[in-house]
Amino acid sequence: MNAFVEALRALLGPAHVLQGADAAPFERDWRKRYEGRALAVAKPGSTAELAALVKLCAAHGVAIVPQGGNTGLVGGSTPDETGRQLLLSLARMNRIRELDAANLTLTVEAGCVLQAVQEAAAAQDLLFPLSLGSEGSCTIGGNLASNAGGTQVLRYGNARELCLGLEVVTAQGEIWDGLSGLRKNNSGYDLRDLFVGSEGTLGIITAATLKLYPKPLAQMTALAACDSLESAVALLGLAQARAGSGLTGFEVMNAFSLSLVRRHFAQLPQPLPESPWTVLLELSDAEGEQHARALFETLLEQALERGLILDAAVAESLEQSRGLWHLRESIPLAQSQEGLNIKHDIALPVSRIPRFVAETDASLQAAIPGVRLVNFGHLGDGNLHYNVQAPQGQDPALFLREQEPRVNALVFDAVMAHGGSISAEHGIGRLKREELGRRGHPVALDLMRAIKKALDPQGLLNPARVL
Amino acid sequence: MNAFVEALRALLGPAHVLQGADAAPFERDWRKRYEGRALAVAKPGSTAELAALVKLCAAHGVAIVPQGGNTGLVGGSTPDETGRQLLLSLARMNRIRELDAANLTLTVEAGCVLQAVQEAAAAQDLLFPLSLGSEGSCTIGGNLASNAGGTQVLRYGNARELCLGLEVVTAQGEIWDGLSGLRKNNSGYDLRDLFVGSEGTLGIITAATLKLYPKPLAQMTALAACDSLESAVALLGLAQARAGSGLTGFEVMNAFSLSLVRRHFAQLPQPLPESPWTVLLELSDAEGEQHARALFETLLEQALERGLILDAAVAESLEQSRGLWHLRESIPLAQSQEGLNIKHDIALPVSRIPRFVAETDASLQAAIPGVRLVNFGHLGDGNLHYNVQAPQGQDPALFLREQEPRVNALVFDAVMAHGGSISAEHGIGRLKREELGRRGHPVALDLMRAIKKALDPQGLLNPARVL
């Protein structure tokens, strides 16, 4: 191993190979669920250096754990405890390579922070729509490797749909230049989408060509109060029909989620009285604010007439719009102030959500009387963060320790029964690997294992993640 | 082989195993470029039957050529000349399995004709946006296997983007049920997108869950005359900024394309005087006709002011709109009336198109004085059907025979130099297999071969297509 680290230092320069205390920040995931020890942290400065590094690893049989901004939620990008895995940080590879405004594309390196990508687009009055809580520190390479979702998926799709081409270093240390700015390209198998979402287990994404959009002239937000999830789903259908793809956000929050925000962030205004479900709608408009407002008014009036909503409030200014989003975004913080809970990132057909929630809420209440559900998420995408909080007064840490397997089994059984997914946007990593092995379709798992073996026969790329 | 055919008859019933004259219509592609001989034509009636059939083929080492509506353009779905390949027709597997209006999804079997899929959606006032010339006979399985494009890609994406989940029979005859109606699902590798576009070489798509959209209240079409492709590209940018995703069509036609329509379909009205380039724009509007018309008027006025267009005509009725589309759709027929030509289905970054066309037109004129370019296509997607017609008075068949390799080399060299693709929406099949082998990125080709070997080690699925 010493010979390997020496060769690595010679390749990257000693400043870019970290060990000991310097390596520590890379060895623990940000939620502090996974803490490992890396052989070293390697920070290549270019694709060519990274490719040489992978060849070196292959020659020495050293496993590689790629890491972007280390904001993952499933333990996919920190090393295990053996001290034998190389942590590969893409942080130095963060150049914006090319913006082609007429083609609406942007080519960036994997280590670019998402916010920097957004800003590069905005500087040309264009929009890169991927947007999520960690955008100030997550990297586009990590976003693509985990096929990140976020708040604009309803209109623009996941990270996958925003990517036109990739540059990838294979397990053999070869460079595939697939940086295409093409909207149509049917020449062979779709390698791009195979690497997107593979969490660094099939190859290492080093750069990407991304889709841009014209920046909407106006964005406007409204809150609506619903007495049931059935009404919220019907409101979604109405909003999609009336606003078409102008509807760029449709988030749902249950009463308990917002009560936690009220308790822990009392200063945040909540314009609507408490109701079982609150929906946040966002319109993006190519024509301007007046048009967006008129559309909102017609839409919400129709929803009131049809009895789909109890009440609604349209933001009067950009600041108020931001305030409404801030409410939604404060839920994760408010729940962590309330204490640890059992988190789920699940997806369901939208049509199944009301029944899933009714049934699963009831089963959980029957199993653990007084249990509290922090249920919120991207209803427009069928994606709920269905989080289970200890009954009032119980120790959250103890609850997590004692109840997590039972709660997970109950929730995931219900998800599968309704044709859903146990991982909507966070990925599998280490956290859900066993669950995938148990619940994945056996033929799909065989296909995935065959692909893994074909592309990474030595098993050196992010081992024991996903599969 | 006799034992195999007997076993096949026992499996499917004798009525569903065709030979001799009954098999003939399946043995020739519709452009009549490929004519082969099949061992037999097998028409299974269910996924289970199809899976058993694949197991039988694997046991006997019989290669399988899947076929949907037999409308492919690259020889991907007809058998070779050996008489040893089984032609697998999906035609009997054409059930609409489920429409979930609240989830905006539709699950159909692979043999459903595209138009039947569109109609099933329309019956619920919903839209399945995939639309192409052969929609009356092509099947959704073939559309997905070849990742078909068409005229609505600008807004809704290719067949790939319209597919949420698949059911696939593997080369081992196993059934993968991946029929998910989920918008977000990050649980393992993206098998769906690996099968989509793999042209039946990795597995056989037997059913799919497709995305639906609310039906726009209005659709409106306009023609605009441009003096250059640079202006047409600038008009595209303006239209995207002003109309956002309301812009659902942006087609371009050069003067020669429209002159062929004028010559061969004189009865079709052409509302604008001849100009170097004519653009067809389509708006889809969730608010109604009046809104669409106002948007068109503002947009075209701005384009006139900026000198991007010479003239424009907005359709006054649905019938006129259809008439403008009919103009565009008559180009392939008009050119075939004019005689055989050398067809290309290429994609380029939109920003590169003006220079590509100027340079390639000039090189072709220099190489073959008097050569005529039937250049039209989906400019919004960077996809041109850049077809090369013999000089006036020359025998088209002779021209094709003598000039095709030279013309292809010249066009494809230019495509590659501009970062384009030699197959935008038609696929590789047999027609472009050698070209892909020559021009594909060597690392990509190695990855594809590894995947093919891993998933179909016997090499029985559509052999000698794609790779």
TrEMBL record, chains A, B:
Cofactor(s) in the UniProt record: FAD
Spell out the Gene3D superfamilies in the cross-references: 3.30.465.10, 3.30.70.2190, 3.30.70.2740, Uridine Diphospho-n-acetylenolpyruvylglucosamine Reductase, domain 2 (3.30.43.10), Vanillyl-alcohol Oxidase, Chain A, domain 4 (1.10.45.10)
Q: Which UniProt keywords apply?
A: FAD, Flavoprotein
Q: Which PROSITE patterns match?
A: FAD_PCMH (PS51387)
Q: Does the keyword Flavoprotein apply?
A: yes
- Annotated Gene Ontology MF terms? catalytic activity; FAD binding
What Pfam families does the database record attribute to this sequence? FAD-oxidase_C, FAD_binding_4
Q: Which residues form the FAD-binding PCMH-type domain?
A: 34-215
Report the leader peptide range. Answer: none
One Gene Ontology term from the biological process aspect of the record: respiratory electron transport chain
Task: Return the InterPro entries for the record.
Answer: FAD-bd_oxidored_4_C, FAD-bd_PCMH, FAD-bd_PCMH-like_sf, FAD-bd_PCMH_sub1, FAD-bd_PCMH_sub2, FAD-linked_Oxase-like_C, FAD-oxidored/transferase_4, Oxid_FAD_bind_N
In the record, the note on similarity to other proteins reads:
Belongs to the FAD-binding oxidoreductase/transferase type 4 family.
Question: What is this protein's record name?
Answer: FAD/FMN-containing dehydrogenase
Q: Which organism is it from?
A: Roseateles asaccharophilus
Organism taxonomic ancestry: Bacteria, Pseudomonadati, Pseudomonadota, Betaproteobacteria, Burkholderiales
